[in-house]
Each structure stands twice: as C-alpha cells, then as structure tokens.
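USER: For my understanding, would you kindly supply a protein sequence with its structure tokens?

ASSISTANT:
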Amino acid sequence: MNLFTEQLTLSNEPVPLAPIKLPVYDENGEKKHLTEVFDFENMLEEYMIELEIRNYSENTIKTYSSIIRNLIEYMKNEENLYDGRRFLASFRKYIRDLKRDKDVTQNYIYLTTVVSKKFLEFNDIHFLEDIQNPKRTKSLPKSLNEKEVHDLLEAVTVNITDTPFKQKSKRRDKVILTLLYSTGLRISELVKLLKKDIDFDERTIRVRGKGDKDRIVLFDEHTKELLLDYLEYNDHESEYLFINKNGKNLTPRYVQMMIKKYAKAAGIKKKVTPHVLRHSFATHLLKNGVDIRVIQQLLGHSSLSTTQIYTSVDMDTIKTVYDQAREQENSLDTSK
C-alpha cells in the first residue's frame, strides 16, 4: 500500500511536497478527521497479512493487532485530529494515559511505541518518525533448576489403567516437554514441527524459526527413544508431529496450559511456560561450560548480545565456569 501523507519533521530540513496535503477538507470546507482520510481498519488487516507472510508467530500477530486496534480506537475519539502534528500530540497523550490510567509496564509502553511506528511506516505514514523509543526493562523469565525440570518431566506418567486415548495424549505431552527443554525450541516452532524434518540417525531436527530462517537443533538419545515410542503409538497421517484429537496441529495455547497442569502436579511453585523451559535449556548449557556461541546457534539468535542476555545466570555459576577454565589452563602451563 502506498499512501501519500505529509512527512512530519522537527528538523530545519525542508519537507518534500506530497501529492495529498494535510489537512484534507470536506465539501463544507471543514477539516476531515484523519480516521476519515485513512482507512486504518483496512490498513491493519493488510499489515497482519504481511506479518503472517513474514512468518511472525501467532501470538506476536495477536499482540500487534491488539496494540494497533487500541491505538485506532483512541484516535477516533480525539478531536481536531487532521494532520501529522496533531497525531503526534495525540500519540504522546495516549502514551501518558497508558502510564497513568492503565498502569501498564514499561515494556508495554516500549512495545506500543515500536509497533505503532512500524504499522504507520509500513503504510508510508511518518507521523511518529521523531518519537524516540522509550527504555525497556530487561527482565528475564525465571529458569528451573535441574531437579525442577526432572520433577516436571516425571509428572507425566503413562499408566496401564489409562484409556488408549489418554495414553497417546500423555506420550505426546511427555515428548513435548522433553523437546522444549532438550532443544530450546520456541513454542511457535514446536507446534509447526513436521515429521519429515526429524533425522533420527543424526539426532537433529530442521526448524523454521523467526524470519523464515532454518536452523538445526539437536536431541539426545533419551529424547530419541521418547520420539520413536510416541510415533509408534501415534501413527497418524498428518504431516505435523503433534496433533490434537481432531487431527489438527496443536495451538500454543494448548501447550501453555498443558505445561501449567504438569508443573502444578510436580509441585513447582514457579510460573512455568515454554519460554521458561527454553531459558532453562540455555542456562543449564552455560552452567555446564558450553560455549556461548554454540548456545547462540542452538537458540537461533542472530546476535550474540541477545544470547548473552538470555543466558543470564548467577555470579556463582560464572565464577565456577571461570575457575574451571583457569585451572585447566594452568595445568597445561605447568606440564610444559
């Protein structure tokens, strides 16, 4: 979509003339509201389609849609909203109202600002180009320790008294939990896994991650056995690895609720999510001395700085890994 608007700038550089100049006047000579000039609803629909094409996760698309729709509804009620400067002023008031009245987090303010700018820029509207992105807090999910992971996996028990359907469901759930922890998969990646992408000989899975980038993740012998057992008892025709009783691939929401159920059964007090298991995967690898660049590749991060934040661990662990490395280096020096 190519919409022509005035380009808001606060600098001294000249603004290039646009084919459509704001404000726009109606037949009575009154300035038209920007929600009448632009079809924001249709623009939102096209933007969501674009995000799907770019392989954004279902949860991300839902979040973006909600943020943009809330902004549109707010702007509809703003008076005298007829040009870019008025839009900018209203957006600043909107952010202020979110902070003051909605009591949202700083990260939500950051996300609202970034998503709103991306949405407008996608439609060649540059009302917010001079808005600086606010700071965000670098909060990380709590990771589970090794015992908690063990207890979570052991909470899934297949009993001979279970119905055949229940046994199949439990085998599937156990494989899901094990894969999330042993591979570091994102929830959006897990629900889209295809059976053909698994190489049992190499113990690898080809994963389509963010930005349509493929990567290879590894799984151990124990996970291999669980996978083979699951496929033997769940010999379905779907191309997807994990499906529900209707033969459709699982939704992220189902997996989230399933994990919550087993975490409660295991007596784990922490909030356990797919993201927590991914974080635990990375943290435990780092604790065991795995090079951070290897972890970066396994997680599918394009930037090492992202991995460094993601694998944040306590200072005692860092000291232990450091001391072990130094001791090994010193032993090599003395043997020369």
Remarks:
- The longest helix spans residues 164-183.
- The CA atoms of residues 100 and 332 lie 61 Å apart.
